[in-house]
Amino acid sequence: MPYQKGTGKSVVVALGGNALGNTPQEQYELVQDTAKHIVDMVAEGINVIVTHGNGPQVGMINNAFAYASAHDGKTPEMPFPEAGAMSQGYIGYHLSQAVLSEMKRRGIMRSTANVVTQTVVYPDDPAFENPTKPVGAFLTEEEAKRKAEETGWTYKEDAGRGWRQVVASPKPRRIVESDAIRDLFEAGYIVVCTGGGGVPVFEHDDTYEGVPAVIDKDRSAAMMAATFKADMLVILTAVDKVAVNFGRPDQADIDVMDAAQARQYIEEGQFAPGSMLPKVEACLEYVEAYPQGRALITSLEKAAAGLRGETGTIITA
Ligand SMILES: Nc1ncnc2c1ncn2[C@@H]1O[C@H](COP(=O)(O)OP(=O)(O)O)[C@@H](O)[C@H]1O
Ligand SMILES: NC(=O)OP(=O)(O)O
């Protein structure tokens, strides 16, 4: 099949939890719709790199092996970095297949490429002292305390929604497969990569070593968008726009904010830690590293409209 490259701008898209769901069945269903929104962008000539979260999925895989291993005595425990790599493969497979099918239906002659990605993190990152990244399913307090005793894992209460396992979330420093991703992207592939922010690895003199942690995918997407000088970083989540006074009667949507304004809102505590705050911070990291770039936060449903400047929140340098 002859491949075509889009003629429009280049974007790095980060997909949030609502694009994927929590179980293989739910994910398979949801990605059919997610793919339509990605292909809407492709149909407009946009060149897309797709990244995605993996918190629920990496937790599910790790937990399933731990449970089976404890109960049948035959199944091996699955180390956390390997569970992260499995989550990239499984999510990437669903996303890629759904995007390919949607393009086939629309007669678009493009193809996808999945890259299982590693991201270098530093051993002295303070994040290792304080696990904050929720992974896996929501549990009751009782279930979480029992699991913590059984496994030695850390569990924390997650924003009033229940208890979840938490792991360290170190800062991404370098994407190991960066050159391969760039080559595939420049050749016209829709590249699905850096899932879950990439499997975190320490880089030694001669080797790489997987690390039991989960990187924030928006932060890795921002680093990749800056590295590749992508025209836009597009963070897709469950809301059309970022807001001030979120969830209050005087909530007001933000159409555009520059870095100084965003920092002021951060100081005022306008963005919830663990949800909107890391997204706005990721956008700042991107526009400050690549001031010509524009970051967009919007919903999956509004992605193509947001790229046309019709909705969403734009963050500039
Ligand atoms: N100031 C804010 N403006 C808009 N949404 C906010 C704000 N603060 C918190 N949120 C919440 O953050 C959510 C996005 O975070 P999260 O669900 O963790 O992301 P993801 O889509 O990556 O899974 C939004 O759906 C919204 O409920
Ligand atoms: N890795 C990551 O950021 O995953 P979630 O978006 O699922 O938390």
Keywords summarizing the entry:
317 residues, alpha/beta, Carbamate kinase, 9 helices, globular, binds adenosine-5'-diphosphate, binds phosphoric acid mono(formamide)ester
**Roughly how many Å is the radius of gyration?**
19 Å
Q: Can you list the ligands bound to this structure?
A: adenosine-5'-diphosphate, phosphoric acid mono(formamide)ester
Provide the CATH top-level class: Alpha Beta
* Uncertain runs: none
Strand content: 15-25%
Which range best describes the helical content: under 10%, 10-25%, 25-40%, 40-55%, 55-70% or over 70%? 25-40%
Major beta sheet, strand line-up = 3-9-2-1-12-16-17-15
Total count of strands: 17
Give the overall pLDDT as a whole number: 94
Reported by name, the CATH topology is: Carbamate kinase
Number of helices: 9
What multimeric state do the chains show? single chain
Gap between N and C termini, in Å?
Answer: 40 Å
Reading the helices and strands in chain order gives: EHEHHEEEHEEEHEEEHEEEEHHEHE
Count of the separate structural domains:
1
Family: Belongs to the carbamate kinase family.
Pfam families: AA_kinase
Keywords: Kinase, Transferase
GO molecular function: carbamate kinase activity
